[in-house]
Every structure is written in C-alpha cells, then in structure tokens.
Amino acid sequence: WHLRIGTLLLENASPSVVEEILFIVVDQLNRGRTFMEDYANKRTELAKLNLRAGKKAISSTMYKSAANYLKEGTIHLPPNHWCDHYELSLDLYCCYAETQHCNGNFSELTDAVHLIVENSRCFYDKLRAFATLVDALIAQEKASEAADLGFDVLSHLGELFPDSTPDDAMTFADYTKTREMMEEKGDVLLNLPLMQDKSKIAAMQFLKSMFFCTYFFKPALLPMTSFRMTQVSLSHGVCKESPFAFAAFGMFCCIFGDIKAGYRYGQLAMGLLERLKGLGQESFARVYISVFAGINIWNEHIKLSLEPLLQGYRCGLRVGDMEYSMAAVQTYCTHSYQCGKELSSLEKELKTYSQQMLECKQVIVGQMTTIHRQAVLNLIGRSKDPMELTGDAMDQKALLRDATENKNSLLVCLVYCHRMRLAYIFGDHHLAADMAEQSRDIDKKKPSTIEVWIHAFYDGLIALSLARETKQMKWMFIADQSIEKLKNWSCHAPSNFQHQLVLLEAEYAFFMGKKKKASTAYELSISLAGQNGFIQDQALACERASIFFLEHGDNTKASDLYGEAHNCYLTWGAKGKAHQLREQSPF
Asked: Where residue 280 falls among pLDDT bands split at 50, 70, 90?
C-alpha cells in the first residue's frame, strides 16, 4: 500500500501539489521500495526525490528529518554512483554532512566527509566538505585541527598566512592597509561588482569559518583573518560573505578607536546584505551579531540590539548556520542582562537556550551561556556562595579544569569577569580586584563587545573603592584608565555610558574629599540610570551613594537611598543581593 499510494500521488498530482505533499510522497515510496519490481531502474529517481525532501526539510529547520531523507537518498544510489551519478552523489553527501553538523552528529558527518574526499574528482569539489568539517571541529573545541585544516585549504587557494603569530605592529599595519583600500573605493563600496574568481569565492567561505575559530581559540590571528576577507572583497568583488567582512572590519575600527568609521562600515554591511540577499541568507546571523554586538552598542542604546540579535538567531537556524545562530542568542542574553531584564525571566531563557546549544553540540557558546546563567542564579539567591559560580547550572572548578585542558582561555576569562562583577556587587572588593586583574585581557579575548564595556566600568569602581581603603595610588591609575574609556564611549552613546561615567566621577570625588561634587554626581547617576532603563546600575548607584552619605553623617538621606537600592535590586530580581542588604543594614 505504501508503494501504491506514493506512486499514485507522484504520477497523478500536479508538480505544485507534489511539492506541497513532498514529504508524504517520499515517505510512502521509501516505505514501499522493497516491493518495487523495477527498483534497480528507479533508484536514481528515488535518490533525487529524497534529496529534494532533505533540502525542503533543511529550509524549514527540520534537521533530523532532513538527515533521514538524505541518508535514505544515499541508500537509494545505484552501484558505481560516484562514476555514473557524480553530481547527485556529491550533493547528497555534502547536504547530509551539513545536516548532521546541525544535528551535532559528528561521527556521521566525518564518515560522509571522508567518502566525499575519497571520491571527489578535483580539489574544488572537496571544499564544501572541508568547510563543514572545519565548522564541526570548531564546535567540538578541536581548535588546532580546525585551524590546521582551514589555513592549509586557504594556502591551496592562494591566501597565505604567516607561520609566526603577528605582533601589534603587524596587525596595525594590516589594519591601516585595509582602511586605505576601503577609503580608495569611497562611494562605490555598495556597488562593487560580484566576485567571479572561483578560488576567491571558496577562500571567502573558509576565511569566514576561520574568523569563528580564531575568535575563540587564536585571537592573535583574528584581525588578520578579518582584514583578509575585506581585502579579497575589495580586490576581487563581493560575494555572500562580503557583508560579514565589512561588518567585521567595522568592528575593528571601533577597537582601534574610530567608532564613527566603525558605524559607517556597519551600515555599509547592512546595505550590502540587502543587495546580495538573492545569493542566500547564510551571512545574515554573522552580520547581525557583528553589527549589533560589536559596533552599534558603541553608538546607540543597547536595547536596540535585542530584537536584531533574535532575528539573527532565527535566520541562522533557518539556514543551518548553527555557530552564529547560537552566538547571536547567547549575545542577546548578555545584552538583556545589561538592559536590566528581570532576572528570573532571564534565567529561564538562559536555561532554554543553553539546553538547545548543547543539543546542537555548540559546546563553546553553551558553556558561555551556562556561566551566565549561574551568575544570574547567584544574584537571585540560588547558590551557597554568591561569589562562586557553582550551583544548579555548573560547577566552577570542573568548568575551569575542562577549559584549561582544552586551552580555551576565553571561557576562563569569562568566569573571572562574571566573578568580578558578583564580588563587587556582594561587597568583596579584594576578590573583585583579583578577578579584574585575571580578566584584564578581555579586550583581546572578546574585542569590541559588551564584556569589554562591563570590565572597564567595574574595574574602575573596584579601583576607587580600594584606593579609599588602602590609599595606594596604583588604584588611581586603573581608575583613571576606566574613566577615560567611559568618557570616550559616552561621547558616542551617552544613553549607555553616561550614568556609569558619572558614577565613577562620584566615587572619584568621594575619594578626593569633594563632598558637594560627589553628592551631585551620585544623584545625577541615579537619575540617568533610571531614565535610560538600567535598573541594576540605578540600584548600584543608590547603594554607593548611601555609603557616601552615611560616611558624611547624613543618616536620613543614606537610609532613604539604602531603601531605594534595596527596592531596585528587588525590581531587577536580585533577591540574593536584596537579602544581603536587609541582613547587613546599618540602619
């Protein structure tokens, strides 16, 4: 019956109807194939139908179903199919490998890649499989293998990289060269011709993968990888990876201090993405995460990044870009945290997304999200020690051990960053200073991101607190650096940074004994934080102001501000911190 139903539907329905009911047709034929009298003659047609069904399932993000169809398609292929039906075989196995990457089934992926490499007729036919393998190796934290394969392929495509790690001078020289090339093109950047050179198109695909690899595991090579993508696009025309190249370059403009240029190139990337949408949406997630996480937070209110990051997540899922889809939603959660999203609601999102990341075998971003979730749990009050990241979500010692063994210094740095913030909020400023010192290279580990911003702000607060306590001038040097960064950023996006800058200035005036200036600055910081929707910073400013007024004998004002801090922490959802304020109240 399965065979009869499938055959009748295929032979009698119109092509448009067959497309609508393709899954039903293919399922019936697959189930009835053992009863086909002329199966040997219909194997190729069945393989093609399963390939169509697999691609349709991929377009609907039904990756498990897609893998089943594609696997069935490979079974239907006739003997000697690599000779007689080469293009069909190549497409089937490449799609199958890509789908198993989305499913996190790396053993099946590797088997498919090996078959493709063994049977491909030329180097270029292996590239799609190599690209999938590189992404899979990255997802499994096999950074050295991914880098070796990726850079080896790039060398065969004419894109050579130095054997030694580039120093700061080499990196800046490469940045300057790329910037000059961008400025030479001027107004024609949006209308650059399409890339025609097959080797350069392939190189762009691998450079895209190597960007992700170097970002997490080889940060010294990240700038050069980014600049090469931009240089290839400027010299040979644009392809579907070019919007990402320009967005990443805009991010590096922000890193090198030219925030206006960074914003300009970010907008160029968005315009080019729209122009090239006919080539596919594979670049959507990575462009959005570069623009809205690496550029626009330095130019506009961070809350404006939330919906675009979710769009990047959804589009990445739709096209199978699991790395950047998961990175986009992880960044969305981090930005929501900074926007003061209610913590119990945020914790539920973090739990859901971290589970999805682990199901997709996106280990790195899954661990990053787990670290974040535990920090939120600590603030809510669901941990034994609010300054240690051990509880329902993770075990701090185990994660640090695994990260160290896998040479993932970024995860280690993020643990220290979260502990720095928690230690300051919960009042252990010496531990906070130790954590700040151990995560001081966050600007190299996660350049031009919110983590750089948060580290600078808390680093300054910690330093000013210890300067008052110890009278050691080394802390003022750190505080001055933080204030200088916040001043620069505040010029471009005051809605994000001005309230934090003013709080640092209030703490500075407190240290210097300038009572009136400090009092005015505290009140302004509280007001600005409230106006711009940063409830957690409003709570912090109220608490710091309360300490200031208490020390200067104004108990009434100190008590009012202490109560306001408590209420703000409760509104944010930081019940653990609010409980600490009640327990330790000096009033």
From this structure: confident
Rounded to an integer, what distance in angstroms lies between the CA atom of residue 442 and that of residue 444? 5
The H or E element that residue 26 is part of is: helix 22-32
CB-side exposure of 10: number of CA atoms within 13 Å?
18
Is 99's pLDDT higher than 60? yes
Q: What amino acid occupies position 261?
A: A
Q: Which residues contact 584 (CB under 8 A, 6 or more apart)?
A: 427
Residue 477: both structure tokens together:
């040097």
Q: 59-90: per-residue pLDDT in tens?
A: 888 999 999 999 999 998 999 999 999 999 99
The candidate with the shortest Cα–Cα distance to 447, out of 279, 198, 158, 221, is 221
Rounded to 5°, the CA angle 483-484-486 comes to: 65
pLDDT digits (tens, 9 = 90+) for 445-502: 888 999 999 999 999 999 999 999 999 999 999 999 999 999 999 999 999 999 999 9
Sorted by sequence, the CB contacts under 8 Å of residue 363 that are 6+ apart come out as 139, 140, 141, 357
Nearest Cα to Cα of residue 486 among 472, 501, 474 = 501
Q: Which residues pair with 238 in a beta bridge?
A: 194
Give the Cα separation of 354 and 360 in Å (integer): 10
The CA-CA-CA angle for residues 171, 441, 372, to 5°, reads 125
The answer on pLDDT for 542 being more than 70 is: yes
Q: Which spans in 493-554 are helix H?
A: 494-512, 515-531, 535-551
Q: What does each C-alpha distance from 372 to 92, 104, 288, 325, 337 come to in angstroms?
A: 39, 23, 21, 18, 9
Burial of 50 (0-12, 13-18, 19+ CB in 10 A): buried
Residues in the chain: 587
Distance CA 457, CA 452 (A): 9
Tell me 194's DSSP state: B
pTM beyond 0.70: the answer is yes
pLDDT at 177 over 60: yes
